[in-house]
Design brief:
409 residues; alpha+beta; Cytochrome p450; five-stranded mixed beta sheet; 10 strands; 48% helix; 7% strand; binds protoporphyrin IX containing FE
Length: 409
């Protein structure tokens, strides 16, 4: 690694930064303080290098949309999360997450078909049924009930299984292996085993769909294999990626979103009492803004010098766009610390922005809109069953959230 250390490396703040246990919904205070001064500053990461941390909303959007900003993690200066990610960079196949320009467009086209607005709208009745079934089981079961295990995890897992086209009789196997790596105390070995069985499962499934395609995401990938565009392994890799990107994120957003609503009863009442799809949609955007659960920062590297907000990002310097402070930038959202479901939260960056913005955002939105609204209506007396201070937050995970959320009613 030949990245040069900036002279001020000793005095710059360390990144990543943690949220305060006293204000668990807020972005790390240090980032908010930095953003008061300027929308981008240098931070120091694990290997001593000092990439730019982008904290401002406008600067984040500008850089997300700039073609001189690359996601290619093999480029010199790319700010890797940790040593493991750096040392395995040539072992990991290229993917939608790490490719630019035409290569990215090629991957993205293979993935986006099942996630178009039209296909997702057609899935709403399925999402509604799955949500209702989970809530029926909660109401029929003992109190308190853990909303993470009983609702936040099963809804997105079942929906993504349906979308991928996993046969119904395999749901249990599929869910089990998909969740092994997510368990709080899962060993690395367990995680590895889970990933391997899942990958093998996806390989078999791709082969089956090559023979007998249906209207689902794995069939779409199998079609590309039949057309000679990708190998079976690549198709399985893309499918596994969708599964993992598609359920842990949404599950965390559901879990911590329920908690945020319980802590803001007036806002929860407004959402419960509304029948206006536009209000419900905006409420989810505001929850996405307020909670900004992706907390590792979106990693990039500059391929040319870029002038922005009075600074110059030099070619080869790393860039980390952190969504949480950008979504709490008072220049974009007055009183950002208030959860206000009536504010226009349309420009929130929780799904990223520009060409790498989330492929699954329409699906995630549909799930969140249905789950929050249905839950508030069907269990209006829901309350937290433990003191707020005892709620276990996921400070150490890529997607922020809660490990469990016991509620009574
Ligand atoms: C609340 C739930 C979700 C959140 C907060 C979220 C967040 C994000 C963010 C911030 C990015 C941008 C990454 C970047 O710019 O580097 C992203 C990309 C992506 N997301 Fe999501 N996501 C969610 C749900 C989903 C779902 C349901 C799927 C699929 C089933 C999915 C699949 C993807 C994929 C494939 C990309 C890569 C897109 C690209 O690089 O072109 N996500 N997501």
């Amino acid at each position: 690694m030949t990245e040069t250390l900036a002279p001020e490396a000793v005095s710059v703040p360390e990144y990543p930064m943690e949220r305060s246990p006293r204000c668990p919904f807020a972005p790390p205070q240090r980032m908010l303080d930095m953003n008061e001064v300027k929308p981008l500053s240098r931070v120091r990461i694990w290997n001593g290098t000092t990439p730019w941390l982008i904290t401002g909303h406008e600067a984040a959007r500008t850089l997300f949309a700039d073609s001189r900003v690359s996601v290619d993690d093999r480029r010199e200066g790319f700010p890797h999360w940790n040593e493991h990610m750096l040392s395995t960079v040539y072992k990991r196949p290229r993917s939608v997450f790490t490719s630019d320009a035409e290569e990215h467009t090629r991957f993205r086209r293979m993935l986006s078909k099942p996630f178009t607005f039209r296909r997702v709208e057609a899935l709403r009745p399925v999402i509604q049924d799955v949500t209702n079934e989970c809530i029926d089981a909660i109401l029929a079961g003992p109190q308190p009930a853990d909303m993470v295990a009983k609702l936040a995890l099963p809804v997105p897992t079942r929906v993504i299984s349906d979308m991928l086209g996993v046969p119904y009789e395999d749901h249990e196997f599929f869910q089990h292996h998909a969740n092994v790596g997510l368990a709080r105390y899962a060993s690395a070995e367990d995680g590895q085993k889970g990933a391997m069985s899942l990958h093998q499962y996806l390989i078999d499934l791709v082969k089956k769909k090559m023979e007998a395609p249906a209207e689902d995401a794995v069939s779409d990938l199998a079609e590309r294999v039949n057309a000679g565009e990708i190998s079976v392994k690549e198709a399985a890799q893309l499918g596994t990626g969708l599964l993992i990107a598609g359920h842990e994120t949404t599950a965390n957003m559901i879990g911590i979103g329920i908690l945020a609503l319980l802590e803001n009863p007036e806002q929860a009442a407004a959402l419960r009492d509304s029948d206006d799809p536009k209000f419900i949609a905006n409420a989810v955007e505001e929850l996405m803004r307020y909670l900004s659960i992706i907390q590792n920062g979106q990693r990039r590297v500059a391929t040319e010098d870029i002038e922005i907000a009075g600074e110059t990002i030099r070619a080869g310097e790393g860039i980390i766009i952190d969504l949480a402070p950008a979504n709490w930038d008072a220049a974009a959202y007055p009183e950002p610390e208030k959860l206000d479901l009536r504010r226009d939260a349309g420009g929130q960056l929780g799904f990223g922005y520009g060409r790498h913005q989330c492929v699954g955002q329409q699906l995630a939105r549909a799930e969140l809109q249905i789950v929050f609204h249905t839950l508030l209506r069907r269990i209006p007396t829901m309350r937290l069953a433990i003191p707020f201070d005892d709620v276990p937050f996921k400070h150490d995970r890529l997607a922020y959230g809660v490990y469990e959320l016991p509620v009574s009613w």
